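Following up on my earlier message about fe (ii) ion. Here are the inputs again, as you asked, copied directly from the submission form:
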Amino acid sequence: MPVSAGTSEVIKSFGLEKYLLELEVDGLTVVPPEVHGITPQVIDQMVGLLLNYAESMTGSPFSLDKGPEKRLHFPQPPNGLTAAAEEPGQFLIQQLAHKNRLFRDLAVNPVAVGLMGCLVGHKAVRFSSHNSFIKWQGDYGYGPSLGMHADQTAQPLPWGRTALTANTNWCLTEYSNEGGCLAYVPGSHRFGTPAQFPQAVRQAVPVEASKGSMIVFHGATWHGAFPRKTPGLRLSIANYYRHQAVTSQEDFSGSFPNELAEDCDDAERFKELCGFSDRFPYQKQSEKVPTVLG
Ligand SMILES: O=C(O)CCC(=O)C(=O)O
Ligand SMILES: [Fe+2]
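Thanks, got it. Here's what our run produced:
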């Protein structure tokens, strides 16, 4: 982790010693609601919004205890899906910060952003993407590999101590092994490589967490997810962050609406994390041009 004044301020103001120690040792930690401050009412409101979006995007009603009411399919299987996985078990709702202020407030939650800053660098941290995973019962899930990966895999080796990306997974429903929770390999952020097989699967442990928890992990941490064996939905929001030198998944700096950025709990922070004031990438001539004198 980059040692800076910012890190010790964040630790002191929110009492994050335990969580930073776990991030240092294991590469992942689970932060409970009494520390991050997001109330059960707000979690339930977000669940309600996501169930509505899921219905309007797919055409099927969704419920927490039953999952999708109608049988779904991907019109064309996305690249990389094998025949066994063609029956969908999950899909992503993207660009959440466009959809409702609650999702913008979540993205600037001070404990989330503080911990991201400890991993990536407080001045360098930016948004990468805001996605919800809508996941339901299915034997296959990501298949025998559990979809194990490190999020910063697109970045060239060697990776250093500073995270190039870092992630928060907000659990909007209970996270259990049977229910298809996150899988991860403790300490794997220190291997400094993309996930290696078969050890990534052999060493994977479930991240069991109660509804409302925020899972935080380093971009080098090997992780995936177990298949959901039980009826109903596992809902999460992955608010993913990056070092400013890394390309974002979603375009914030070029096209996120300023008026939406202004409408949240911490507009200055939101705009900074969008990268609105970054020098790069420029969209017009940014350097001064000399002109004829006189
Ligand atoms: O919960 C999952 O399916 C995996 C989440 C994940 O890989 C991520 O947020 O980066
Ligand atoms: Fe991931």
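One observation from looking it over: The mean pLDDT is 95. Hope that helps, and feel free to reply on this thread.
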